[in-house]
Amino acid sequence: MLLQESLRTLATQYHTSEYPNTVREYFQHLFLTEFYKREASSNFLFKGGTALRIVYGSPRFSEDLDFSLFNVAAHEQMSVIENLFQDVLVEFEQMGVKVSLGDKFGQTKEGYVGKANVQIYDYPPITIEINISNRNGRKIQGEIATIANDFVPTYNVFHLPQKDIVEEKIFSALLERHKVRDYYDGCRLKKKRLLN
Question: What is the residue extent of each domain of the chain?
Answer without folding.
Answer: 4-160, 162-195
